[in-house]
Design a protein that fits this description.
Mean pLDDT: 85
Structural class: alpha+beta
Shape: globular
Largest sheet: 6 strands, mixed
CATH architecture of the largest domain: 3-Layer(aba) Sandwich
Number of helices: 8
CATH class of the largest domain: Alpha Beta
Oligomer: single chain
Number of strands: 14
CATH topology of the largest domain: Rossmann fold
Order of helices and strands: HEEEEHEEHEEEHEHHEHHEEE
Distance between the termini: 28 Å
CATH superfamily of the largest domain: ABC-type transport auxiliary lipoprotein component
Strand content: 25-35%
Low-confidence stretches: 1-27
């Protein structure tokens, strides 16, 4: 999901505002800088990384890489080994303008090509995508469940009563979950066959059965329990706080943590900031 989808979510998410903020205008996410990009969709294969798609006029196309090629080596490293695949993926992101020497298999022929990653804008959602790609493209089976842990408004006095505030939180919880479900349903990753997104209704049911309290702190034991019950290898914990600015606008701060269920380690921690301009 790109910036356009994020704008669409942000508009929907802002509708339950109160008073003068009933029809806000949303600003897009700001770029975090740049990252190297090859313009390919790749998936794990026994011998390395299989090219499923090559974008027109991309760095990969200019280097002569074609669909169905299998990348088998990088700087003499065997890409059948997961740790070597990671080194290639990281070097692509950090290798803007640098020539990367790649060995590939095309049919029964082995070729060596040099490709120079090009510049691409980096947005917060890309950081989550990279963490997932590292897992999927090294060959691990990955299933992610979304858990919205906390929705908060820093100025609750703006709501006429407690039920109105709770209604706003419920609406924001659903729209926030929808946002990240759309982000995680990445078509490129889905094509690999070892990636999936856990059903949100099932996740919600499990949370209710566990009487899970929506707070920002989740223990490793709870993470393992949740992951096992929903069949997820990773949990994406999401929290959102809306702040009122002196200018009269609002800022949504969304904090995400992608946690590996088995080890409890954080694979990615990404913060989104979205400005809501009140009319």
């Amino acid at each position: 999901m790109g910036t356009r989808a994020f704008r669409r979510w942000a508009f929907l998410a802002s509708l339950p505002l109160v008073g003068a903020c009933a029809a806000p205008q949303i600003e897009s996410q700001q770029s975090l800088g740049h990252v190297g990009h090859m313009g390919t969709v790749i998936c794990p294969a026994d011998e390395g990384l299989k090219i499923l798609q090559v974008a027109p006029r991309s760095a990969a196309e200019k280097a002569g890489i074609k669909e169905s090629d299998i990348l088998t080596g990088y700087r003499g490293l065997d890409l059948a080994r997961p740790e070597n695949r990671l080194e290639l993926l990281w070097d692509i992101r950090n290798g803007e303008g640098k020539l990367l020497e790649l060995t590939l298999k095309r049919g029964g022929t082995s070729l060596t090509l040099k490709a120079a990653p090009t510049r691409k804008e980096l947005y917060p959602q890309d950081e989550l995508s990279f963490a997932l790609r590292d897992e999927v493209e090294t060959g691990r089976k990955v299933s992610v469940a979304i858990v919205v842990t906390l929705i908060n408004h820093a100025a609750p006095e703006l709501f006429k009563n407690a039920p109105a505030l709770e209604a706003w939180k419920a609406g924001m919880k659903d729209s926030t979950g929808n946002l990240f479900e759309g982000l995680l349903l990445n078509k490129g990753l889905m094509r690999c066959g070892n990636y999936s997104v856990a059903d949100r209704d099932k996740t919600k049911q499990v949370l209710e059965e566990l009487h899970f309290q929506m707070s920002g702190a989740v223990s490793p034991e709870t993470t393992r329990q949740l992951g096992k019950l929903v069949g997820a290898s990773h949990l994406l914990f999401v929290s959102l706080t809306r702040f009122r600015q002196a200018s009269g606008s609002y800022e949504d701060v969304i904090t995400t943590r992608l946690v590996a269920v088995e080890t409890g380690t954080v694979a990615a921690s990404v913060r989104f900031r979205q400005t809501v301009q009140a009319k």
